[in-house]
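Long-time lurker, first post. I've been practising inverse folding by hand and with some scripts of my own, and I keep getting stuck on stretches where the structure tokens seem ambiguous. Below is the full token string for one chain I'm working on. Before anyone asks, I'm not after the true native sequence, just a reasonable design that respects the backbone. If someone could post their per-position residues I'd love to compare against what I wrote down in my notebook.
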């Protein structure tokens, strides 16, 4: 569908279908790993980003993959909607990668910059001896290869 005139019903159907897909993938993974659903504390679902506009007058990000569907089908609490909270707090809508980088790469001896080459690459700045970090989108990454 044309992104400027897309059908809201199609959006809703895709949101639901993607949630079912994610739930089925989870169920299959658990079965393959011989893990019962009650052994899992929670699912963190980023969703599938379909529109990400963090720099406009009214910044926003939209993901599909209804976490309510995931939770209902897997019987596991599902946490989602990470990007929108980060944007509401003034971020770029990518709160998970900087936290991951902080945990994995922070140093007491040197400032570090981590570059994550994804669809849109992002940078995490990790100052020495600090519990804070700053992350932001930088340039196209694999999106260029996709085109």
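-- Answer (accepted) --
I ran through it position by position. Result:
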């Amino acid at each position: 569908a044309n992104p400027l005139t897309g059908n809201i019903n199609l959006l809703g159907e895709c949101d639901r279908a993607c949630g079912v897909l994610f739930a089925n993938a989870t169920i299959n993974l658990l079965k393959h790993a011989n893990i019962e659903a009650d052994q899992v504390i929670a699912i963190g679902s980023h969703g599938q980003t379909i529109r990400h506009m963090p720099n406009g007058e009214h910044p926003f990000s939209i993901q599909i993959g209804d976490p309510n569907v995931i939770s209902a089908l897997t019987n596991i609490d599902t946490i989602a909607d990470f990007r929108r909270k980060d944007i509401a707090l003034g971020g770029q809508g990518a709160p998970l990668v900087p936290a991951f980088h902080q945990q994995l790469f922070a140093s007491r001896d040197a400032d570090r910059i981590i570059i994550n080459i994804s669809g849109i690459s992002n940078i995490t700045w990790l100052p020495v001896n600090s519990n804070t970090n700053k992350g932001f989108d930088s340039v196209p990454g694999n999106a260029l290869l996709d085109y």
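A couple of notes from the structure itself: Strands lie at 43-45, 48-53, 60-64, 78-80, 112-116, 120-126, 134-140. Helices lie at 8-33, 67-74, 82-88, 96-105, 142-146. Happy to go over any region you disagree with.
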